[in-house]
Design a protein that fits this description.
Blueprint (H helix, E strand, L loop, with lengths): L22 H4 L35 E6 L11 E6 L4 E5 L17 E6 L6 E5 L2 E4 L4 E7 L10 E8 L5 E6 L3 E6 L2 E6 L16 E7 L7 E6 L2 E6 L4 E5 L13 E6 L5 E7 L2 E6 L2 E6 L4 H4 L10 E3 L5 E6 L3 E3 L2 E3 L2 E6 L4 E5 L14 E6 L7 E6 L3 E6 L4 E6 L13 E7 L4
Antiparallel strand pairs: 1-2, 2-3, 3-4, 5-6, 6-7, 7-8, 9-10, 10-11, 11-12, 13-14, 14-15, 15-16, 17-18, 18-19, 19-20, 21-24, 22-23, 24-25, 25-26, 27-28, 28-29, 29-30
Pfam families: RCC1_2 (PF13540)
Protein name: BNR repeat domain protein
Keywords: Repeat
Amino acid sequence: MGVATASCSSSDEPSESSQSVDAGADATAVTDGSKPDVATERDAGLVDAAALPVVCESTPCVTALVTTLGANIDDRSEGFCALLSDGTVACWGANGAGQLGRGDDAPTVDSANAARVTGLTDVVSLDHTCAVDKNGAVWCWGTGPFLQPDAGAPLAARSPVKLDIPPATKIGTSYATACAAVSDGLLCWGSNANGQLQPLTDTPGPTGQPKSIALPPGGKIEAISVGLATFVLRDDGSLTTWGANPPIGRLSPIFPDPYPQKVPIEGIKATDLVYDNACATAGGRGYCWGARVQQKQWGGSGLDRAVPEPVIAPEPITDIATTHTYLIDSEVHPYRWCAVGISGKAYCWGANDSGQAGDGTQDHAYDATKVVGLPGPVARIKTTPNTTCALLTSGKVYCWGSNYNGQLGNGENRGRNFVPAEVKLP
């Protein structure tokens, strides 16, 4: 398909961007073309910009795409999982915590070859390494809070573990906290370090027992995201958040804020929460907020990004993704963001030292830069600090950037791709 693969640099070590750019709110757009030419700012307009649907052209066909989690927040290994149209799940990339789900007897080695998670069938919903099947059963593998008696010690499982909770429709999980949408509301369990379960005075430590969360009135739960805060997106376009501040996305006089309240954005279509950073789309516009940016670099207070700020884009946005902000050498380094336009084109900005912006270069993408080499329109996009993967409307997945953990899924060990290449699905 004319997709080029760049040769390796002299080092395959995971890169640490030396530049710190808060492009989540201040990036400018680029024109349609193979080179990242800067265009004038464009008002994306308030439109009903939902993600393009996936229409399977052949098998295997992917219907949903997620990132995996490492052993803990300091584990920077990267990987992805895909929900296939036959109800199975395939994963590739890092496997130090068993996040590929290859089975109890399989080694915990990284893999550039996508393979099905053992024992999973009839899956209808997926988040990181937890899945919901058609009967409402929740299965998790890799790292996470698995309703064990010692809730403070997350279990690493090489095979899916069935959780003892009522039938669920959606699941959201992070390293130590998880939530599930059930018939009578929302259940959460695990760490309460940032008030993700309820006020710290009521539950000062982690719990292995699910807690019912009282949500404000609203529609049906469409998606759950868990990081330093918890996000619940409903079918009425409202986003309810609680936990650490940021990234709850609203002003609050308390930290953490354990009381679920709505973010002041209407008509939200999609969200992405990665530990301390968050983004959302509404009315064709992208918004990002989260981790503090150092005052000496950016001016203003430490709450400059506590509330959603618009993303400048060349066209209305249907999907958006962000990454965790790391502290490197006593400086905050916001990594990168990617988005999908209403046309199906993909754009990335931020760190690009592994080619993860997808423009064929290693130049830091200060502006929203068009991804080159994709053979068709994009439905969804997912990012890690060093890699990007896009789910096309055809059901194919293309990835670019670092391959240090085999996260490109191309069957090759290490190396980098500066432009997209297709994942070899089972």
